[in-house]
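User: Show me sequence and structure for the first protein, then do the same for the second.

Assistant: Starting with the first protein.
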Amino acid sequence: MQAAAWNRRIEQHMAGIIGTALLFIGPSYVANAAPLVFGGGRPLDGGRNFKDGRPIFGAHKTIRGFTAGVVGGSLVGLGESLVDPRMALAGLAISLGAVLGDLLGAFVKRRLDMKPGRPLPVVDQLDFVIGALVFSSSLFPMTWLSVLIVVAVTPPIHLATNLGAYLLGIKKTYW
């Protein structure tokens, strides 16, 4: 009887860890993908260059894309607040962190003299997740195991969705 109770407790604990990871993934992935669908228009950096003479972020990072990412991810968080009330505000923090993490990745790529759209493995797959984790950590703390799940599943999901967007003609590159 004690073994059965122990197994139930472990199952509930693991369900909580996985559930937390899934709640986090919703707003962060939508915030990262929405600019691809709804972006375009005026560059966020206004076309200006950094002191090294290279673009700050590049033409692919736009005001409309930034806004779409934050709004889209926040709406997912608002929907998820029906499951976990913290997500009403945490969804905004996760979304803002995701788009800012992506911008930091673009900033680093421009410093490395990489053109927009060129691949930088690991950075391309995890910059938005790291930003989202940092920005939301006080509003939506996660166990290390939940973080590990998010970090482990993100690169293959990111690559698969980018390939899908490429095949659908939404993206010009498959990475």
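Switching to the second protein now.
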Amino acid sequence: MTSVETISDRFVRQQDLVPDDKLAELRITVIGVGAIGRQAALQLAAIGARSLQLIDFDRVDLTNVTTQGYLARDVGLLKVAAVEQAVSSLDASIDVIALQDRYRAKTDIGEVVFLCVDSIESRSAIWRSAGRRTRFWVDGRMLGETIRVLVAGNEEGRQHYPSTLFAARDAQPGRCTARSTIYTANIAAGLMIHQFVRWLRGQPLDCDTTVNLLAGEMVVAGN
């Protein structure tokens, strides 16, 4: 069996759900590979993304093994390097660009962006710089067991998204990952991937989804 046959074979159970031809054409940038970003990158690799750009300046610490799913052997490594290794373990043929840095306005990014950073200030700055350069944009946020996924993949989403970038003085104090769990991060990443796949299929998007796991509540806006 050739390597091409092997790669094609592993997608057989999702071939009616994920348009692999459209996915293969896209360069996807994940900004921030912490709790949500690492899960999103691995799920993207698993569904067949062919080109992934990872942007993060941080290193893996011991708490990241519990809350972000990094391996014990990853502690001390650059997060982008550890995620690159994990992606390559899934599929060594994926083109991965690991950028050890903060996102900067001059950074060349893909037409699809998964934004997984900690602060509103960072989200606002990145959106102002890169938002209109993308075709699909999804922002994953979480605090404790509450998740919010915001999508700008159509004009409705692009109009709504800036309204969620409230002033820093109105934000809840502390980093959004100060209270986090791996299961919340995984669900958040899955919701982001789901919206991305809907976009690939040309289906309506939910521009603003909030899930409160503790209360068992889900609120969806936009179609």
